[in-house]
């Protein structure tokens, strides 16, 4: 049995989850400072609860009179997020031969070819991570303005991975002179959406690599 003091400075809606990986049954009980019972919540279930300003006593206990000392539970209480407003992209993986974050003279961008794996995190307007929400990534290739789009669902911390497995060849509209070669590429947009709404993002375009030609010294 564990006791926790939980203080709320102003009325807020929180998501509450007692994540219990063990075979024993746990319960979260919520009391006021006078130990009047306010709620009893089962484990491994997401709840949305309005907490008025005040002090609360939380009790986690086994209801089956058993516990597993090697399996730690997690009590997750966080302010309920609003609709997704922005994403922060941490990495865009692609073909090993071109993967990287480089500057071809138009600012630093991720360079891609053949496919992409996008890793990021979704936030609401207050900077709170948004769990269990849809995120969609769209890119538009230069050839025939072909649109590629795939979606994913954020985890409990707002993280997501989106894979676009097959992307056509680039046209090579732009060129960059490297020390030993010429690189040809396109600059294409990448847009992120949630529930049909366009999200702010720290990454808005990509270098779509076409090919390179050897440039002897």
TrEMBL record:
Highest taxon listed in the record's lineage: Bacteria
Gene3D superfamilies (alphabetical): 2.60.120.380
Protein name (database record): Carboxypeptidase-like regulatory domain-containing protein
Annotated organism of origin: Virgibacillus dokdonensis
């Amino acid at each position: 049995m564990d006791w926790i003091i939980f203080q709320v400075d102003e009325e807020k809606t929180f998501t509450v989850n007692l994540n219990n990986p063990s075979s024993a049954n746990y319960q979260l009980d919520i009391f006021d400072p006078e130990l009047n019972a306010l709620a009893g919540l089962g484990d491994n279930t997401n709840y949305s609860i309005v907490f008025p300003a005040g002090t609360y006593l939380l009790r986690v206990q086994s209801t089956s009179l058993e516990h597993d000392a090697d399996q730690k539970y997690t009590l997750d209480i966080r302010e309920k997020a609003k609709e997704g407003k922005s994403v922060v992209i941490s990495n865009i993986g692609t073909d090993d031969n071109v993967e990287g974050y480089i500057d071809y003279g138009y600012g630093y961008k991720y360079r891609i070819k053949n496919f992409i794996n996008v890793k990021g995190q979704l936030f609401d307007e207050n900077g709170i991570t948004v769990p269990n929400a849809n995120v969609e990534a769209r890119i538009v290739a230069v050839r025939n303005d072909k649109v590629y789009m795939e979606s994913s669902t954020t985890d409990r911390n707002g993280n997501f991975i989106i894979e676009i497995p097959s992307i056509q060849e680039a046209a090579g509209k732009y060129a960059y002179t490297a020390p030993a070669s010429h690189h040809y590429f396109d600059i294409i947009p990448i847009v992120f959406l949630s529930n049909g709404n366009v999200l702010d993002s720290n990454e808005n375009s990509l270098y779509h690599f076409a090919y390179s030609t050897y440039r002897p010294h």
